[in-house]
Amino acid sequence: MTAELDSALRIDRDFWREPYPFYDKLRSIDPVYKGTVLKQPGWYVTGHNEAATILKDARFKNRITIPETSTKYEALKNVQQNMLLFKNDSDHKRMRTLVGKELTPKAADVLRPFIKEAADELLDQLQGRGTADIVSEFAFPLASLVIARILGVPKEERHQFRQWTADLIETIDFTRSRKVLVKGSETAAQLTAYVRCLISKRKADPQEDLVTTFISAGKLTEEEVLATCVLLVIAGHETTVNLISNGLFSLMKHPAQLGALKENPELITSAVEEFLRYESPTQLTARTASEDCRINGHIIRRGEQVYILLGAANRDPNVFDHPHVLDIERNPNPHLAFGSGAHVCPGSSLARLEAQIAIQALLERAPGLRLAGSAVQYPRLMGFRALASLPVILT
Ligand code: HEM
């Protein structure tokens, strides 16, 4: 039965552009579905309550999934296994306490003037240009400047981050091939060499930045400091860029919502929550059951993989009225875009603030903002809702 259902549920070409009909179909069969529909065998969770339950359940562990046998991915494996994201229990708690302290809502708010100034400077450079690509010319440089500032990376050295981030994001996606893993491992080696050098500089000459804080706290091994910085580079870029560009794209496709936001700029807070729900930058995360667990009448066996489709949970009609409608005033909006439980995103306040400032600054400076064409491309990633580019007309 599952094999038949699985083949009936194969994703098609439209999935990359619009995964939501597929998610709906899967959820209507079972919000906790066992199969191989996205190629990997495991449990696919599309229901909101079920996703939240599993994310909060410590019996489901995060782990790296790079093949153990190969030495070709050594650099990637070494850095991933020291990342907070792939730690569990007491190790996770030790690292998380330190990182969480540095990314509180208050710490994010201190960066408000810096983010606003950076957004304005980027928009100054686009002034009079007529057209621009939001992804590469606004969202990415902005997120890059912010994460570079926090970590203490000189801003003129951050240009390699774009390719590094793109290579490493692909290595954690379902779609990855061996070639992607090999390339990702080379990139991991370059990025770790860069960060190692930064760590040595900060040891010799401490500054007011996170690299110095992580070293001087004395709670992390050197490899963990390294992996934490690498994780922040990746996490701080990709998803925030996607939130800003997905949000602007959604607004331009919904002129009434765009008009409402321009008329009532104070709606930006709930608008960003709705962008997080409607086009969740992280579409999927995974866990492994550490023991047999009963969820929704199913027994998930020890060692089985669980794929939590955050983008599907955020469109669950049992929790959200008219889930496929963009409503920038939606309230309440209990989306799971930042995950939940022990691994819930510690960068959420910063990401929200960056998106609020970026979108508002752009709408103020270019009130006639519109799409420069109807076609956009979504890279073939299952775990991330990303736009390859977003060409716009700035008027
Ligand atoms: C819109 C932007 C963002 C989204 C949608 C997002 C999403 C997420 C999600 C879903 C998780 C949990 C993954 C899981 O449970 O397996 C996570 C974890 C994490 N995020 Fe974010 N994130 C964003 C921005 C950021 C930023 C700006 C930073 C840092 C500056 C950051 C740092 C992290 C870290 C360090 C973790 C691992 C936490 C842990 O394992 O305890 N994220 N993020």
Task: Summarize the helices and strands and which ones pair or pack.
Elements lengths: L1 H7 L11 H10 L2 E4 L6 E4 L2 H9 L3 E2 L12 H7 L8 H14 L2 H6 L1 H15 L4 E3 H18 L9 H11 L6 H27 L5 H7 L5 H32 L1 H9 L4 H11 L5 E6 L3 E3 L2 E3 L4 E5 H4 L34 H18 L4 E2 L19 E3 L2
Parallel strand pairs: 2-8
Antiparallel strand pairs: 1-2, 3-5, 4-10, 5-8, 6-7, 9-10
Helix pairs in contact: 4-10, 7-8, 7-16, 8-12, 9-10, 9-12, 10-11, 10-12, 12-14, 12-16, 14-16
The structure holds protoporphyrin IX containing FE.
Protein name: Cytochrome
GO molecular function: heme binding; iron ion binding; monooxygenase activity; oxidoreductase activity, acting on paired donors, with incorporation or reduction of molecular oxygen
Pfam families: p450
Number of helices: 16
The parts where pLDDT drops under 50 for at least 5 residues are none
End-to-end CA span: 56 Å
Count of distinct strands? 10
**Which hetero ligands occur in this complex?**
protoporphyrin IX containing FE
Largest sheet: 5 strands, mixed
- Give, in order, the helices and strands: HHEEHEHHHHEHHHHHHHEEEEHHEE
Taking strands numbered 1, 2, ... along the chain, how are they ordered across the largest sheet?
Answer: 1-2-8-5-3
Number of domains: 1
At the fold tier of CATH, the topology name is: Cytochrome p450
InterPro entries: Cyt_P450, Cyt_P450_B, Cyt_P450_CS, Cyt_P450_sf
Organism: Bacillus glycinifermentans
GO molecular function: heme binding; iron ion binding; monooxygenase activity; oxidoreductase activity, acting on paired donors, with incorporation or reduction of molecular oxygen
Family: Belongs to the cytochrome P450 family.
